[in-house]
Design goal:
The complex is a heterodimer of chains A (365) and B (286). With 365 residues, chain A is mainly alpha-helical. Chain A has a domain at 102-328: Orthogonal Bundle (MetI-like fold), CATH 1.10.3720.10. Chain A is built from 18 helices and 2 strands. In chain A, a hairpin with a 6-residue loop joins strand 1 (178-182) and strand 2 (189-194). By secondary structure, chain B is an alpha/beta fold. Chain B has a single domain, classed as Rossmann fold, CATH 3.40.50.300. Helices cover 40% and strands 24% of the residues of chain B. In chain B, strand 1 and strand 2 (39-49) form a beta hairpin. The model of chain B is unreliable at 1-22 (pLDDT under 50). Classes of the chains: A mainly alpha (365), B alpha/beta (286).
Chain lengths: 365, 286
């Protein structure tokens, strides 16, 4: 803050003073270093000196001193100061216009936009991953035709910018006026419609996002499937388990462990990726925000509104991710790690005064 | 391939027709050849294992033992020759004077009659011991037998786990079990489909020495049950103990076969003698 006010004059002495400031800090910390060591040292030397050559004692009645980590505390302090600084500036700088943010955060138009964003994410995410799974199986199949179709699909949709795909689908009516289903090279038509009526903003958005998502998720799922040991398939085959069941019951659940982290990355990317459909003037969250700030000129606060909603969605997804990953780690680890909730309960059980007393009682017994 | 097949297909089917009861689990391997790229791994193997018999295949690594085992349940397709179980060809259907390659679904049915136990257990790590055992009986299409309901499969699964001494670990995941326990679960899993034939591909090679016996004891128990067993192993003491027939393979061929007495005590071939002198003597010296 202050450096921006007097840019040149202060920039030079600042690092110097920082250096001086940090100089006395280090010996202080170094002095702190030996303290825990000094505490434990007498116990250690007495133990090894007196007991080592004489009869063996057990150390059951000795007080246990946990290892100290002074640098962790230094690190924590530095980070805490940084976080506090940022929080302070966010709270006190009037230009963030938190009042405006609060006013628009739950406004009807914003909530409507949010719903559209969620709808797009859910539909294109689900369809994208289903199509991706099929493409992955095609790519891994024995048929050269299926392999090349799947490869070509991924190649095309991964090499075209999403924006271009979006506009292409939306303007399909320009390329092909009518869409029809019939026998090729004959006049037989079962179904025919104007492209523009068939593919509106929503259809174009879903098409673009789904196909793009499918191309990426196919590779993620394929990678997951390849990570499963070949012996698993062999064992399932030897047991006469049918092919589809082998994929869904034996291979896929094991592949999930490799698929999930990247897949959630993709879904979170998709949440924000939906904002690209603003080019179709589709009123999802981001487009809605743009429309509002073009009218009110409160650009940053409204972008903040959108950002906060994206943060909320990502947070919720992260919680899902944690529990879903935990579910699929069944059998892969000997004991499941505690959930944060279980950890909190355990912490409280140990650190509440009542628990501490009972622990001490147990210790003296 | 076809010449070998045409001339020999008559015999096993005739045998099956005449004596249906006692041929449960007759394995006939005739002139089987298999190559991986340029390397010929099986060079015309002919071997018959009688119903309820216990054949132990021994030999140096790379001699084609495991490949031979895997051709029996069609995990590997043979290049020439044929394999028949109770007179029915594995992987092919005979119609007139033609052999039709079977489709996946039919082959799966055949496989349910042949259980297999792998060197690395290959248990499904995300399923409990019991679920590992019950999976196939619930979903696998079986020839002439209905699929089991979940409850039936559960009862049968617990019974099998009990038989291998692991009833109390039914809910454990494979990673929570020792190697020996895992292999015993794998044996229970292979038994769940009531196979006529059980194939063991070095079932104790991945185990710590002190865990080997718990697995071998289970296999010994099976040897008396009337199921045909074909076992690839390096445990010579066990082979001597359990086998009716010992088959010594080297470089893709059967060098000699006979009773344990014949093969271990009086091998005819020089190659057999030199192999056993390396494998058995150190073991007996200990």
């Amino acid at each position: 803050m202050s450096s921006t006010a007097t840019p040149v004059a202060q920039s030079a002495p600042e690092p110097a003073s920082a250096g001086i400031e940090s100089a006395p800090e280090t010996p202080e910390v170094r002095a702190a270093g030996p303290v825990p060591a000094g505490e434990t040292a007498p116990a250690g030397t007495v133990g090894s000196g007196s007991v080592g050559r004489k009869a063996a004692t057990d150390y059951a009645d000795y007080r246990l001193v946990p290892a100290r980590h002074p640098w962790r505390w230094v690190g924590t302090a530095v980070v805490a100061v940084g976080v506090a600084g940022i929080a302070w500036s966010l709270a006190t700088n009037p230009r963030w216009e938190w009042g405006v943010v609060a006013q628009w955060f739950t406004a009807q138009s914003i909530v409507n936009g949010l719903m559209e964003t969620l709808k797009l994410t859910a539909i294109s995410g689900a369809l994208g991953f289903i199509l991706g799974f099929i493409l992955a199986l095609m790519r891994l199949s024995a048929s050269p035709l299926l392999v090349s179709v799947s490869w070509t699909f991924s190649w095309i949709f991964r090499s075209t910018p999403l924006l271009v795909q979006m506009l292409l689908w939306y303007n399909l009516g320009y390329l092909y006026e009518k869409i029809s289903l019939g026998l090729p090279f004959t006049d037989v038509r079962f179904f025919e419609a104007q492209t523009t009526t068939l593919i509106g903003q929503f259809a174009a958005a879903v098409l673009g996002l789904t196909l793009n998502q499918a191309a990426y998720s196919a590779e993620i799922i394929r990678g997951g499937i390849l990570s499963v040991d070949q012996g698993q398939l062999e064992a399932a085959t030897a047991l006469g388990i049918p092919a589809w069941r082998r994929s869904t019951r034996i291979v896929l659940p094991q592949a999930m462990r490799a698929i999930l982290p990247t897949a959630f990355n993709e879904v979170i990317g998709l949440v924000k990726g939906t904002s690209i459909v603003y080019v179709l003037a589709y009123s999802e969250l981001f487009y809605t925000v743009q429309v509002i700030y073009n009218r009110t000129q409160q650009v940053l606060p409204l972008l903040l509104v959108a950002t906060l909603w994206y943060v909320v969605i990502t947070s919720v997804l992260s919680v899902f991710q944690y529990y879903i990953e935990r579910h699929y780690s069944k059998g892969a680890v000997r004991t499941l790690p505690l959930t944060p909730l279980q950890k909190a309960r355990k912490f409280l059980a140990i650190h509440t005064p009542a628990a501490r007393e009972s622990k001490q009682e147990r210790g003296t017994r | 391939m076809s010449t070998a097949l045409r001339t020999t297909t008559q015999t096993p089917s005739a045998a099956a027709a005449t004596d249906a009861v006692t041929t449960r689990g007759l394995v006939e391997i005739t002139k089987v050849r298999k190559s991986f790229g340029a390397a010929e791994v099986l060079k015309g193997i002919t071997l018959t294992v009688e119903p309820g018999g216990v054949a132990v295949i021994v030999g140096p690594s790379g001699s084609g033992k495991s490949t031979l085992l895997r051709t029996i349940n069609h995990l590997e397709k043979v290049d020439a020759g044929f394999i028949a179980i109770d007179g029915t060809l594995v992987g092919y259907a005979v119609r007139g004077r033609r052999l039709h390659e079977l489709r996946e679904k039919e082959i799966l049915k055949q496989r349910t009659e042949i259980g297999m136990v792998f060197q690395n257990f290959n248990l499904f790590p995300h399923l409990t011991a019991l679920e590992n055992v019950t999976e196939a009986p619930i979903v696998a299409p079986r020839a002439g037998k209905p699929r089991l309901s979940k409850a039936e499969a559960r009862d049968r699964g617990l019974e099998l786990l009990d038989r291998v001494g692991l009833k109390d670990r039914a809910g454990a995941y494979p990673r929570q079990l020792s190697g020996g326990q895992q292999q015993r679960v794998a044996i229970a899993r292979a038994l769940a489909l009531d196979p006529k034939i059980l194939l063991f591909d070095e079932p104790t090679s991945a185990l710590d020495p002190e865990l080997v016996n718990e697995v071998l004891d289970v296999i010994r128990g099976l040897a008396k049950s009337g199921t045909t067993l074909i076992i690839v192993t390096h445990e010579m003491g066990f082979a001597r103990d359990v086998a009716d027939t010992v088959v010594f393979m080297d470089q893709g061929q059967i060098v000699e076969q006979g009773t344990p007495q014949e093969i271990f005590t009086n091998p005819r071939e020089v190659r057999t003698r030199s192999f056993f002198s390396k494998v058995i003597e150190p073991a007996f010296n200990i």
